[in-house]
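Researcher: Here's the sequence for the chain we discussed earlier.
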Amino acid sequence: MHSPSNFLEACYNAAMPSRRGNLLLAGAELRDPTFAQTVTLLVEHNREGALGLVLNRPTQTPVAEVWLQVEIDSPCQHDGLLYHGGPCKGPLMVLHTDMNYSQIQVTKEIYFTNDAEDVQWLLEHQGDRIRCFIGYAGWGPDQLEAELDGGSWIVTPADHAQIFESRDEQWFDLLQQINPAQAAILRNPGIVPPDPTLN
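Model: Thanks. This is the structure I predict for it:
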């Protein structure tokens, strides 16, 4: 028989569905420059908190410049650029499509790892089916839920193309799919009178 604490923990976990594998689209009212107009993939989400990687903040830094972080002597075989995954400092992290070199299965076909040997193999063999990050977005217990309740984020399922095929207007394109009316207002702010009584 389960102890009361184990039973309550199981109930808590059952009541809190994981949003792992979803995209967090910054709400139009989110003004924090760290996350304004960002698209963030939730890599992990459980009762301990959440970890995400911002997909639409590329840097001009080649992966080779941080290769020493994985502590492997061989030269870097990947000529791609790093992405700034968020404000929290972390190791070199990789999203990819090979389940044999993964620590977390994020979606049906997307995986995550920061293991040094796995990262080395992936950079040598995955070609364009890989994205490398420095930094991540992190939330403590119940923090993300509070932000969702406050309207800071819009949640939508992720797919392969959204993760690996960058577009300059990725945030706006997704907003247009989810809420065309709001996207139209942002694109053409003049369609909303400055005085609401004029509506």
